[in-house]
């Protein structure tokens, strides 16, 4: 039997409907940078699943009744108790968003010159490791390199490489192992419980702390139940509890799996580490019982954390993403297989194989989705990961030219996703007509947010 969303829509927001001419003008004005497009020129926004989920009536009821006391508010105790229900961490702190959690935890847990090992560091995570003076090193499992492989846990860390690094000449410099669940930078693929347990054992053996970047903990738990032996019949909450129990600490952006517009948390077991985190938290974010969040967002998180582990919700969300993946495949476009939950990663390099990496096929496909259908999404290819010379020429391309279609939670209906697949099908019918792009401006810092490009006019042959 087909699943359906365990909720009905009660409040709606109109979305802008634009003409191709209006979109051409808007994108040119934005310097062909998706982050510079005004949202009122976007019809379907698949730029991110972060802070973009639809809130529930129960979340808004909590928000309306929120307690804004500076210290010890009721809203804080609800936030804390929702996190305690899922995690077993004795020290929990609220922060305004994930990157603040990263900055606080890494600036205390890591020392300059140390190494952070991960399945894949998300971009802000990498930046915060580097700001702490440490090196961020990714050790994705070998299966991740084959975009078409349907291996169930392509988000895993390469255990062999992890053990080799820990026991090798760099071993004494490893300050933390950080596992991102699900692996957003690695195609949104899940990490298995077996992999997490093996990481725990290696961290114990080498005396290194094991942290989770748990932004999508519920979706990872769901995929463990679906794909890993021994988890059928467990609830997402039980799997989440088992996951958190393995780690020494976590950072989690709660803009994803707490379905909140804002919020994040840090959890640690070590008392000394907790004291240091708390000092930085109070100095830079806010007092330990609100951490830069308003009472309303503490409440939305507390309620969202209960809603997100509902198996009916997770089943339907995962099935909608899988359905979207099938539609895209039928449209003639390949994705990173198998479909995860929070987004689909299009293989733009394969679709636009006529285009060299210096024409930025991922970005070209993203621009075409906008121009043809008002759909906004982001490139994960050479524009984001390649290296450039001083004249903004690409000197080394990324291994893959991908485009991420992130799927906001509870926000779009299947009809919206079908529309996106239709637009993709129209592009896939004539991929040679998609123009290349060149970079005209690229700052050193946070390049992909601030790039400017130009379209290369197509010469008719
Ligand atoms: N870690 C992961 C795995 C993330 O995906 C993100 C954000 C963060 C940390 C940072 O959290 O945004 O609350 O500061 N990812 C968003 C995305 C931005 O679009 O994937 P934040």
TrEMBL record:
This is Tryptophanase. The lineage of its organism: Bacteria, Bacillati, Actinomycetota, Actinomycetes, Pseudonocardiales. It comes from Amycolatopsis methanolica 239. Its cofactor is pyridoxal 5'-phosphate. Residues 45-422 form the Aromatic amino acid beta-eliminating lyase/threonine aldolase domain. Keywords: Antibiotic biosynthesis, Pyridoxal phosphate. InterPro entries: ArAA_b-elim_lyase/Thr_aldolase, PyrdxlP-dep_Trfase, PyrdxlP-dep_Trfase_major, PyrdxlP-dep_Trfase_small. SUPFAM superfamilies: PLP-dependent transferases (SSF53383). NCBIfam families: PRK13238.1. GO terms for molecular function: lyase activity. GO terms for biological process: amino acid metabolic process; antibiotic biosynthetic process. Gene3D superfamilies: Aspartate Aminotransferase, domain 1 (3.90.1150.10), Type I PLP-dependent aspartate aminotransferase-like (Major domain) (3.40.640.10). Belongs to the beta-eliminating lyase family.
């Amino acid at each position: 039997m087909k699943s359906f969303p365990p909720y009905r829509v009660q409040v709606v927001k109109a979305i802008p409907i634009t003409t191709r001419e209006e979109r051409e003008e808007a994108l040119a004005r934005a310097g062909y940078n998706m982050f510079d497009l005004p949202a009122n020129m976007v019809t379907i926004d698949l730029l991110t699943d972060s802070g973009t989920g639809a809130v529930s009536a129960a979340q808004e009821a909590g928000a309306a009744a929120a307690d804004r006391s500076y210290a010890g508010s009721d809203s804080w105790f609800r936030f804390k108790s929702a996190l305690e229900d899922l995690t077993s961490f004795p020290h929990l702190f609220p922060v305004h968003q994930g990157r603040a959690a990263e900055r606080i935890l890494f600036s205390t847990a890591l020392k300059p010159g140390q190494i952070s090992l991960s399945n894949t560091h998300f971009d802000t995570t990498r930046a915060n490791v580097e700001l702490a003076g440490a090196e961020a090193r990714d050790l994705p499992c070998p299966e991740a390199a084959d975009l078409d492989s349907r291996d169930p846990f392509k988000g895993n860390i390469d255990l062999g490489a992890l053990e080799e690094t820990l026991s090798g000449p760099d071993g004494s410099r490893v300050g933390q192992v950080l596992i991102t669940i699900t692996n957003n930078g690695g195609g949104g693929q899940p990490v298995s419980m077996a992999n997490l347990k093996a990481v725990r054992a290696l961290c114990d053996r080498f005396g290194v702390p094991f942290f989770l970047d748990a932004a999508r903990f519920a979706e990872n738990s769901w995929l463990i139940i679906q794909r890993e032996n021994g988890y059928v019949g467990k609830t997402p909450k039980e799997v989440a509890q088992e996951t958190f129990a393995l780690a020494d600490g976590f950072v989690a952006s709660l803009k994803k799996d707490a379905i909140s517009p804002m919020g994040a948390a840090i959890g640690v077991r070590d008392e000394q580490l907790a004291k240091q985190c708390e000092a930085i938290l109070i100095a830079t974010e806010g007092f330990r019982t609100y951490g830069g969040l308003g009472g309303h967002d503490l409440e939305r998180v507390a309620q969202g954390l209960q809603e997100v582990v509902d198996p009916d919700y997770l089943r339907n969300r995962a099935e909608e993403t899988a359905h979207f993946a099938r539609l895209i495949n039928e449209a003639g476009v390949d994705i990173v297989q198998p479909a995860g939950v929070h987004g689909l990663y299009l293989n733009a390099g394969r679709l636009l194989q006529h285009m060299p990496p210096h024409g930025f096929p991922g970005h070209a496909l993203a621009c075409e989705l906008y121009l043809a259908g008002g759909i906004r999404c982001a490139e994960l290819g050479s524009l984001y990961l390649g290296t450039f010379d001083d004249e903004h020429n690409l000197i080394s391309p990324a291994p893959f030219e991908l485009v991420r279609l992130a799927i906001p939670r509870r926000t779009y209906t299947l009809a919206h996703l079908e529309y996106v697949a239709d637009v993709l099908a129209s592009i896939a019918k004539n991929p040679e007509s998609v123009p290349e792009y060149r970079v005209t401006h690229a700052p050193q810092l946070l390049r992909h947010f601030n790039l400017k490009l130009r379209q290369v006019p197509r010469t008719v042959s």
